[in-house]
Amino acid sequence: MIKQIYNLILKIYTMRIFILIILLLMVNLSVRSQGLFKKSKDTYSLSERWQINDTLTNQKDLFKFKTYKPLYILFANYTNDINELPTSDNPDNVVLEPLPLSDTELKFQISFKTMALKNIFGNRIGGDIWIAYTQTSRWQVYNKAQSRPFRETNYEPEVMLLVPTPYKIFGINGVFAGIGYNHQSNGSSNPLSRSWHRIIMQFGWEKNNLSIVLRPWWRLHEKPELDNNPGIENYIGRGDLMVAYEKGRHDISLIGRHSMRFDDDNRGSLQMDYAFRIYDYLKLHLQVFHGYGESLIDYNHKQTIVGIGVSLVEWR
User: Fold this and answer.
1) Boundaries of domain holding 23
2) Is 258 marked active-site?
3) I need a surface site. Which of 44, 171, 210, 292 has the fewest CB within 10 A?
4) Which of these is catalytic: 185, 188, 197, 290?
5) What residues have CB less than 8 Å from 123, skipping those under 6 apart?
6) pLDDT digits over 195-247, tens only?
7) Per annotation, catalytic residue among 102, 183, 197, 290
8) 197 in catalytic set
9) CATH of the domain at 158
10) Could you tell me the pTM of the whole model?
11) Sign of CA dihedral 208, 211, 212, 217
């Protein structure tokens, strides 16, 4: 009887992993069916992903799902220092007893965007409003002793205004400049609750197979008693720089974040993603992270993480 129950539970969790894979495939098929991917082309430039050329030619393409950030599953995501005692400068958000966590978990990310308004400043200047959503989950699927819980899920809706910037400097093409509002939270209750709000500017450039996006941001502060993570910007940073390059079957990207402080608050992180196309749009994916803020619950926790899995969408 016990063995039958165990086999049933194992089947349920196997099915959950299968459902995650099917979900990623469905998202990929959905965006492909709406014209983002075509058989004649494997990668898309920054201007194509944000439909900058369509803006300049006044073509309409509203409320269609488009890819945004990479879409992947990392079946083995290992950390050298799992955060068993999440802490915060707010005493209401301090975990007092160690959490029995595994140092290897499953991580997946889904992300999409859609254009809501087009050319709000007219055909000459352009100006598009985009709505986007990203969700990243960390699942303790190998932690059988604790019933394989989801350790952390970060929800990130945002709205952005982008304006085309058709200029060239040092041989690199300007693509867009923009500003937007970003909310990020983990949906948990105290003491695990973490959240913040930001105003994010962004600037994009590209040349051939190279894409560059710079994003400085400003945190919108809350009342001290409501702030789950005081000083989060001194760990996760006050901006990031993303550089992505693709060549043939290879895609590589680097994302660096920094606090923009050079005293005791000199902190940040670096993440590298490498993908190798193995079949059609399916890629083998390697991710390496070092620093602070791999997730919101770990915003002030420094660690090195290595994950391997598969992906369907990269930055290019």
Assistant:
1) 2-313
2) no
3) 171
4) 185
5) 58
6) 999 999 999 999 999 999 999 999 999 999 999 999 999 999 999 999 999 99
7) 183
8) no
9) 2.40.230.10
10) 0.87
11) positive
